[in-house]
Amino acid sequence: LAPRHLACGAMPRNQAVAALKETLIQRFGSDFKDVIESEVEGRLEGRSKLERQDLDAIERVVTATRRERRGGKPLGKGLTRSQPDLQAVSQPARRLVGSSSSPALDSVDRRTAPQTAPQIPPPKSKKVRRPAPYAVSILDEDAMSDRSRVEVKPKYFVPLPPKLKPMDHWDLIVAYDTNKYRKEYETYVKAGKHEQQSKVKHILDEQMKECHKLFEASERKRRQERQDMLDQIKENQRLSQAEQAQRDALRDKAKAINEASLESLRRRRKADEDRRQREQDTMLKWMRDENQRQQEQRKADAEEYARKCKQAQDEMNEAIAEAARKKKARQDEDKAFAMAGEKAADDAEARNRAAVQARLDQIDRNCEIIGAEIAGRDAKLEAELQAKIQRVQEEADRAAKEDAERRKADRDAKVRSMLDSLDMQMKQRDEDVRQEKEDSIKQAMIFKREYEEGLANDRAKEERARQAREDMDKELVAIMRRNARIHPRDFGAELTQQQELAYNRGIYEQMAEDNFMMPLTSHFLNQASHSGKLDPHPSVGRYQGEIHPLEEIQQDM
């Protein structure tokens, strides 16, 4: 509600109080402005804000003041619209006497009510007050008073249900039965009791004779059934004995076969055990022989190994002695060879020293002759080397310059390519922005069209729902009108009336023959027609083929 929301808002106090007063004045009218202002100021005195209970109390005071000014009774003290007046409920006699307006009713109430009504004290525990209903709080006018001047203008009219139950087909049958009974009773009274008793006695005698015949026939049938049962028991005993003898023979035969099979199994098991024993003995003997052979083999191998070790040791000692002898002979030979080599080296060194001195002398002589030629040759080689170095340096500078120019050309080409690609990207971005803007406009138009279509569909859906509700209301009102014309005791009888009339068609035909209440009888007789299935299984065709003789034999059950 607006007042409750204003009390909880975040606006300043003065604005909230002014908004609360304005809302209450708009709701209850300017005639109650003084009451609203006094109540609000009184509730806010010494407080910072209003609670929910305060707002409910202000609404109750203003509503009670409006009811008093309009001539109605004031509401109970301390109650909201959704809470009952417990004190008024706890004192029904006093309230009834006080609220009666006619003298006769006052006198009746005074006679029936006690002279001194006990005063029931109000409950001490304070109950939690519920807030006023939302539908009541938003109304401009108070609809709780008898003087609310509410004018009801119904859209559909429904007739009142009938007060008397109309006569149906069952009531007609009961009336016909009562009429027949009265006629028969009058005939019985006129004809006399003796004749009627004689007639009844004759009927009873005939019935007794018929009962005796039926009893004798049933007795004969029972004796025949007993004899048939005894014969059947003897036959069953004979068949049971034959079957038992056959089962005994089969059991003896099976027993003999089982014994033969067991004997064969025992012999087979004995042969298997003997074969396993023989295999075990053979295996044990082989294992003992193999063990002895292995021991002898290990002993012979040990002796052969010892012999080979001794022979190898002897051969090794002989080889060692031979090697020592050969080593001593080789050392003597090497010593003699070394001495001969040392002597030859000394002789060669003397000869070499003389040859070296001769070569040195020759070199001195040659240097004096070819020194000038070597100096010229060295100067020429130096000049050629400097020229070659100059050419190599110039070639390197030219190559470096060409490489720098090539690098600069490559960089300039890359920069131009980058600038061209950036220009293309900027143009593409502008094109994309323009295209996106056009697509956004188209999409907005599509959204607007879909929104309008959705609104149209919603309006059509609401219209269909409203039309469906109107059709449903018409159908329900038609059903209400149709049901309102039916007496409560006849409600639902029309569902099975057709079948009931068809089942009792013979009774209505008899009523027509007796000319009993022809208007109703003819009306119901015209409706008593059976229109159901004539064949219990209409979907299954009748069998037209040949029937086997065995299927025509009746079984003796």
Sequence-ordered SSE layout with sheet pairings:
Blueprint: H1 2-7, H2 13-28, H3 33-44, H4 52-70, H5 86-90, H6 92-99, H7 103-112, H8 134-137, H9 169-191, H10 193-484, H11 497-503, H12 505-513, H13 518-527, H14 549-552
Helix pairs in contact: 2-3, 3-4, 6-7, 12-13
Number of DSSP helical runs: 14
Q: Shape, please?
A: flat
Structural class by sheet pairing and helices: mainly alpha
Helix residue percentage: over 70%
Biggest sheet details: none
Tell me what portion of residues adopts beta-strand conformation.
Answer: under 5%
Gap between N and C termini: 87 Å
Residue windows where pLDDT falls under 50 for at least 5 positions: 1-10, 72-124, 132-145
Radius of gyration, in angstroms, nearest whole number: 70 Å
* H and E order: HHHHHHHHHHHHHH
What's the number of extended β-strand segments?
0
Quote the average pLDDT.
Answer: 77
Annotation keywords:
single chain, 557 residues, mainly alpha, 76% helix, 0% strand, disordered N terminus
Brief summary:
The protein is mainly α. The protein has helices at 2-7, 13-28, 33-44, 52-70, 86-90, 92-99, 103-112, 134-137, 169-191, 193-484, 497-503, 505-513, 518-527, 549-552. Helix 3 packs antiparallel against helix 4 (52-70).
